[in-house]
Amino acid sequence: MDQSVAIQETLGKEENCIVVSFEPRMVSKIFIYTHRRMAITADDVSLEDIIPITLDFAVVEGNFLLILNIQSLAKVFDLALSIFPLTFTLSTKVSSHHDVATNILPTQVPKFEWIKKYKKSIKRQEAMKQAIAPLEVLSTKNNQHQKIGLSSLQSISSREERDDLVRSSSHTTSNKAQILAMPQFGLRDNLIRCELLKSEDSYTYLENFRFFLGTYNVNGQTPKESLRPWLSCTPEPPDIYCLGFQELDLSKEAFFFSDTPKELEWMKAVFEALHEEANYALVKLIRLVGIMLIFYVKKEHAEFISDVEAETVGTGIMGRMGNKGAVAIRFRFHNSDICVVNSHLAAHVEEYERRNQDFKDICSRLQFRQLDPTQPPLTILKHNVVLWIGDLNYRISDLDVDKVKDLIAKNDFETLHSYDQLKRQIDVEAVFVGFKEGEIDFQPTYKYDTGSDKWDTSEKCRIPAWCDRILWKGKNIQQEHYKSHMDVRTSDHKPVSSLLVIGVNRVNPDAYKKTFEEIVRNIDKMENECIPSLSLSKREFHFKDVKFMQHHAETLNLFNDGQVPCQFEFIQKPNESTYSKPWLTANPPKGFIAQGASMDVDLEVFVNRSMAPDLNCGKQEIEDILVLHLERGKDYFISVTGNYLPSCYGTSIYSLCHMKEPIQDMPKETLLELSPNDDAATDEKPLDIPKELWMMVDHLFRNAVNQEDIFQQPGLRTEFAEIRDCLDSGMPDSLPGSNHSVAEALLLFLDALPEPVIPFSFYQQCLECSSSIISMLPQFHKNVFNYLAAFLRELLKNSANNRLEVDILATIFASLLLRSTKKQDLAEKKKTQEFFQHFLTQHSS
């Protein structure tokens, strides 16, 4: 959290906040700026001071002392300070100073002659503003149309710098109720905040703002035409633009290394096409591989934007790959919390259940950090307004291509829409419960021949579909238009736009003050009357048959039966760093309950790969005690127990090779005794490879060598659960589920191994590309490696059908077979891919 927040709380209406900013390439000096609230444009920023970095340079922040070694300054400047990161426009302004500053060599004693120029400028603020290179402004022919931020796009060239921008927060003092959420405030202030929120209607009023939402799958193309027909289609300029792109870059480089030059190209195209009758500032950009979301706001509204956060979640293979997934931006506009999501869901007509699962995964996994770090993250649906755009990929079912085209030719979109998968899934409340979508009176937006308005004439001849959609959830929202834009022909999709008029809560300062004072008076009367107390619905919870990667939940109801409001929190026990074991979560872990009110707390149990090994062998049990603490009150103790069903997932290769029976049929004592150091674990000859691994590979070899997109398209979670249960409890003739689900189950099996196929101790040698190292592996590990490599080579022989490529397989499997105990950098990842790729291109190892 940036330190400017704490300063801003003390500021008056016209006072400024000092922010220290560091630029990685400027390691010889520090620029100190003042800015007014949220600095989005150059007009909001002015240079305050410049501090040279000397040989004995030190920065003191509170009780924190940082000493810089001048000889290390040639390295990346990565300070462990909580500072306000550079925005696009700030970076441009800082760069203009950097160009005229001299470099300091490590062996020289600096004289800092250059600083005199700035010291003079700082004393004369007007002269300083003239010296600073102005932000580049694009103008129309009549010189009246100005937009903020294009030149600044050039200054952000690396993914690392963009990440700092995306992760930052900005806050304004206009949100007085939000300030009370800061962690330094205790029970009294939480009570005030709660009462203020309950009384919000008494000091706020609605004001309408126009939100332009757009979505465009660009099919990996570069901009070839103006986007004005799409982005400037409204008579009046919108107040806010939220624009989502999918398939920004389809190259392997973008997929593997998450970097693409097309980001800047499309940002420039967007910037040039925004409505001419307004000035816009770029607030945030977030991208995951080819999924990008851009957020622009009218310049005059910028000061009312705060709490800006952006996050991503991948829903590709193993729930991680970013070729499918979502990016999202949340922010506070005046007194309303708004979340915008741009998603790209699973493809293919028959995969609607996978799309449903993607939607649910995005809703549960995409979380935003809160201003108060002790509070649980915010999920998408915990906002006043949710705007969802993207290529949702839902298709037309039960109609052939000729019938669909016939209905389109008749403009009978109502009949055609009744066959739309998304409409059907919403009608049965499988997805988007509570969301609304405007009436569709435009023809399907997919699939066209690129550069034309002709339907797909390729061999596959895709059935037209409304893949690109815009939905919303919240109160006081009216849609003014919902349409596609046929004049834009760069892609095989057509862009879609929706103009929403949204009623946003604004604060009436006088009414707020009156409400605040009344609440404080009432609290003063009852503050010290009684000790808080709670009534708990249960004190003991037992989770039956806990399984690997299967979510289990029980509800604990807390009722405030005392005479005063209370604040609770689950606290850590002595000598423990967290309030619970890693497999247990209380949601929420802390909260506030008014007098006579109640709150549900979900106790959730989930075992992942890091917890499974000790639970499988019996070293750990599902057993914990939660301590529920009341501020100014007593503690309550809650017992959590359960029985864990051992799984091949999270069990070592060595142990599995010594099990001829399913793992759930093995006595716990035997599981605990099995270890690589116990050669006498069994008198029977062990298996060459784990039988569970053989079953999955054999299934894929017999059924999936020609499967299109194998190991690239995720399976269904319900099918994974069935596959896991088969492997753990029995040996059926064939595994259940689709080929994609079995393939993902195999990847999850390799990912969950406590010791990877190539043990950790061999990792460094493999980075040196020594292929002979495989012969030195422990026998069971060597067998598994050779078995998997041979299977993958067979898949590559059928690449014409399954569309697999060597580098794709190498990327996916190298990260599973060859893992490090530490976080890998990009260079190491490339080396592991090159190492494993050698075995995929050779016919013998």
UniProtKB/TrEMBL annotation:
The record's GO molecular-function terms, alphabetically, read: inositol-1,4,5-trisphosphate 5-phosphatase activity; phosphatidylinositol-4,5-bisphosphate 5-phosphatase activity
Q: Localized where?
A: Cytoplasmic vesicle, Phagosome membrane; Early endosome membrane
Pfam families, A to Z: Exo_endo_phos2, INPP5B_PH, OCRL-like_ASH, RhoGAP
Q: Where is the Rho-GAP domain?
A: 672-845
Q: Which GO terms describe its biological process?
A: phosphatidylinositol dephosphorylation; signal transduction
GO-annotated cellular components: cytosol; early endosome membrane; phagocytic vesicle membrane
Q: Which domain of life is it from?
A: Eukaryota
EC supergroup of this enzyme: hydrolase
Protein's UniProt keywords contain Lipid metabolism: yes
Q: Does the keyword Ribonucleoprotein apply?
A: no
Q: What broad class describes the main subcellular location of this protein?
A: membrane
The EC designation for this entry is 3.1.3.36
The UniProt keyword set, sorted, is: Cytoplasmic vesicle, Endosome, Hydrolase, Lipid metabolism, Membrane
Q: Which PANTHER family does the record match to this protein?
A: INOSITOL 5-PHOSPHATASE, TYPE II INOSITOL 1,4,5-TRISPHOSPHATE 5-PHOSPHATASE
Q: Which family does it belong to?
A: Belongs to the inositol 1,4,5-trisphosphate 5-phosphatase type II family.
What protein does this entry describe? Answer: phosphoinositide 5-phosphatase
Write down the species: Poecilia mexicana
